[in-house]
Amino acid sequence: MPAVPDAAGSAGATRAPSLTHTSLASALASAMSGAFPGPGDDPFPGTGAKRVASWRIRANSADPVRDLDAVHRLGGRFVVPGDIEWPRQLDDLGDTRPLGLWVRGPADLRTWALRSVALVGARACTPYGAHTATDLATGLARQGWVVVSGAAYGIDGAAHRGALAAGGATVAVLACGVDTAYPRGHQQLIDRIAEQGLVVGELPPGSHPTPSRFILRNRLIAALTRGTVVIEARHRSGSLVTARVAARLGRHTMGVPGPVTSGLSAGVHELLRGEATLVSDADEVVELVGAMGQLAPTRRGPVLPRDLLAPAARQVLEAVPAGGPTPATVIARRAGTAPDDTLARLYELHSLGFVQRHGEGWRLTNTATLTSNARRGGT
User: Fold this and answer.
1) Mean pLDDT (the chain, rounded)
2) How far apart are CA 261 and CA 278, in angstroms?
3) What predicted TM-score, i.e. pTM, was given to this entire model?
4) Beta-carbon count within 10 A of 337 CB
């Protein structure tokens, strides 16, 4: 698992209650007043006017001191742009960049996000999808990558569990407050992630999820990570939103194919028909998101004993009929070789256990006996 900064390290500056209380209260006060004396005093640089206006409406009922006290009681903190722990890749979101992030967990969000991959997919996944997500997460964790997902049922939960089971790092990005377990059935999983990994949310403590907040959450998952892998998704799945945001941000977009008859894989297949890359295991994911030269192993089928034969011997073996014993002269005509050369190759094949002699003819053996003559000094 990646190293966790100590209290005197980079994360310490963002976890001091006095500094965070002051910065958040100041930002909310500016949003409520709407008075920005000059461009240099704008507390939300790069943020659109409409988004600031929506913040102003919500700020009227906000209580930053209460929210910060709530997250500090959980051992968490509030991270804003400019803090050492702030993941700078979130700035790629432009006007949709979050005001800040609520974080629970012992690790440093910025350093973890530098080497992270998102695994997302259907909530009502199949056993194939759950197995694939677990396998991918385990493989990525064992190679030192952080697995990021949304803590939902299905693919998300399988991805988090796979990373945790491998003793790896995982980040859950919630569509609610970091003090709220959603779905409720994942209370223990989210608590465990907060102990071993990180739980992150854009909304203050006490906030509950809504359909629109899940869509907004997905952009964070895409922006935080170096690539997004979609494992089972219907045509209208929110996971496809994550993948499309990742593509717009210039991140790697990947998909795991499923049966062509499965509606749960239809959305993934549509991605793969576009610019997404097909992946089947962690090695292929790392080949895309990792450093130059981290290539996946070459895929090939098993090596059969006949693959190791010399070309001339293989040519004669292919000419031996599967039926009864056949004379060497007939085998020579079928192989297109001289009778003497054919006979020499047949005896080679016999010593290796590929053929047997019956009277004046030759036939294939049922199984190769590669060490049948070892006791007589053969090799």
Assistant:
1) 85
2) 18
3) 0.73
4) 18
